[in-house]
Write a sequence for this structure.
């Protein structure tokens, strides 16, 4: 942007005033028109939806999905307009935000027409593959792969959160907590968890947090639902999410200060704390290699957020 362009943009933003109710579908429709009419076609562009309240026009996820623009609901990746949703405060509608995120995740694979009418026999050249299944496994064959085990833990925890959230929506908090507690006990007994895997430790903390937020229906409505849905979104795409006051994320806290029970420290400080483990992209890595990382928070993501928060106040981090 030119200097005049930047000044014009600032004036436009400062002239915005909030009034009336909350109509998320209308906002997304406007954003979609801008998205589709833009001159510069950045291939990684997307819409970011931020909301801190209840929608006054749609009271259910299904009603909201029917009102969304066709490009948001499209399952064609070429026509799809990606939307990232962020809910703020205890009054935002976590169900609707999750429904918008979850739209269009299913897909259809067309294998074409398998024409058997010609009755032609096609020979396919391939190699023979044999898998040995010995009657007695050697000690080496019985060793569990920690990388496979940690990913199995991730899938298992994601399934437990989804099952518990479904019971919580029906008012069965006792059953929801029982599922999370049982899965947490199972997780702690896995080889990866016993080996001190950082991801497994974060998954255990996540299960404990969501269990605590399902203590009562009021608490579940305030924070439990949003935390559970956010966790489900995170695990389904193996992508980072921020969930406010949580002990599994460092993204929402200011470095060197305590937030939500966890101390987020600078890169230099963490080099002096080798006992901390990274749960990010590198399995079983020491925290000396990167800032404290959440389950799906890459090291570069955490550094970027910390640098942004310290911009203009400190240049010691980087």
């Amino acid at each position: 942007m030119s200097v005049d362009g930047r000044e014009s943009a600032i004036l436009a933003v400062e002239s915005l005033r909030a009034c009336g109710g909350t109509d998320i579908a209308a906002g997304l429709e406007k954003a979609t028109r801008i998205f589709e009419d833009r001159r510069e076609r950045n291939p990684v562009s997307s819409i970011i939806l931020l909301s801190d309240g209840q929608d006054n026009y749609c009271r259910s996820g299904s009603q909201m999905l029917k009102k969304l623009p066709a490009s948001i609901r499209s399952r064609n990746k070429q026509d799809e307009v990606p939307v990232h949703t962020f809910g703020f405060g205890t009054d935002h509608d976590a169900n609707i935000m999750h429904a918008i995120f979850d739209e269009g995740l299913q897909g259809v694979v067309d294998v074409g027409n398998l024409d058997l009418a010609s009755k032609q026999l096609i020979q396919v050249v391939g190699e023979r593959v044999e898998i040995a299944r010995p009657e007695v496994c050697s000690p080496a064959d019985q060793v569990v792969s920690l990388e496979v085990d940690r990913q199995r833990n991730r899938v298992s925890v994601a399934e437990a959160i989804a099952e518990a959230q479904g019971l919580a929506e029906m008012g069965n908090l006792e059953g929801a907590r029982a599922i999370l507690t049982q899965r947490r006990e199972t997780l702690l007994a896995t080889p990866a968890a016993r080996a001190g895997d950082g991801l497994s430790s974060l998954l255990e903390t996540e299960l404990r947090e969501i269990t605590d937020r399902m203590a009562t229906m009021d608490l579940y409505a305030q924070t439990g639902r949003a935390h559970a849905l956010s966790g489900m979104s995170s695990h389904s795409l193996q992508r980072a999410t921020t969930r406010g006051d949580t002990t599994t994320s460092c993204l929402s806290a200011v470095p060197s200060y305590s937030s939500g029970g966890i101390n987020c420290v600078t890169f230099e400080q963490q080099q002096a704390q080798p006992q901390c483990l990274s749960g990010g992209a590198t399995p079983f890595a020491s925290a000396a290699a990167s800032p404290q990382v959440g389950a799906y928070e890459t090291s570069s993501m955490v550094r970027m957020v910390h640098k942004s928060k310290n911009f203009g106040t400190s240049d010691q981090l980087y």
